[in-house]
Amino acid sequence: MKKVAIIQSNYLPWKGYFDMIHRVDTFVFLDDVQYTTRDWRNRNKIKMADGSAKWISVPVTGGRDQLICEAKIDYSSNWANKHLEALRHSYGKTSHFDRYFPAIKEILEGSPELLSQLNRALVEKICGWLGIGTELRSSKEFGVPGSKDDKLIGIIREVGGDGYLSGPAARDYIVDEKFEKAGIGLEYMDYSHYPTYEQISEPFEHGVTILDLLFMVGEEAPKYIWAE
Predict the structure, then answer these.
(1) Strand partners of residue 138
(2) Burial of 128 by CB count in 10 Å (0-12 exposed, 13-18 middle, 19+ buried)?
(3) What is the extent of the structural domain holding 147?
(4) pLDDT digit string (tens) for 24-33?
(5) Which of 11, 128, 173, 174 lies 20 to 30 A from 81 at CA?
């Protein structure tokens, strides 16, 4: 079975995003769909010394009346420097900060035009650190029409897949019978198994950027994501 996952690109995603990528043969960034504001597309969380989790957001132009792949980054403010300073403030004294931070800095200061370009560059870099060799594609390569299940099934066929790994929240809208009729096996991610690790402050927070895990445990990160 060739297993496929399809999900929108996110900014500095959490560990579960990379767990999904690791578990499939082909991962497709679903970026030819409507951009959503105040969502994971352009923001994520980092831990703070006081125990809270702080949002860091990439400003974009155009709002929600565009596709994700059309969303341009707004460089009228020096957001990249603010994000880098926030990371340095929270994680600068961690054991593995100096190993990963320079590459993140280089990508953010590279000033990509599109949010999807930034997100993909970061995901590709982090996949390399985690030893993930999954094929990465973009839905805009295929131009599959339709919405929801029909679009997903069309993309899976385009990449030659016969299995689909979905996030658990999609149970609310995926019609299992459509996938069965199309001859595509359907599975759902389980995000309940992740062990904790030492963070810079308590209480423990799973839902933060994977950089938190990398800065804290370095090469041991895969052990805290998949138990293989």
Answers:
(1) 29
(2) exposed
(3) 3-224
(4) 999 999 999 9
(5) 128
Is 0.70 surpassed by the pTM of this model? Answer: yes
169-198: pLDDT as tens digits: 988 889 999 999 999 999 999 999 999 999
Q: How many domains does the chain have?
A: 1
3-state class of 188 per DSSP?
A: strand
Question: What whole-number distance in Å separates Cα of residue 12 and Cα of residue 44?
Answer: 6
Token readout for 89 is 């403030």
Q: What torsion do the CA atoms of 22, 110, 54, 87 make, to the nearest 10 degrees?
A: 90
Residue pair 167/20 in contact (Cβ under 8 Å)? The answer is: yes
Q: Which residues contact 45 (CB under 8 A, 6 or more apart)?
A: 53, 54, 55, 56, 205, 207, 208, 209
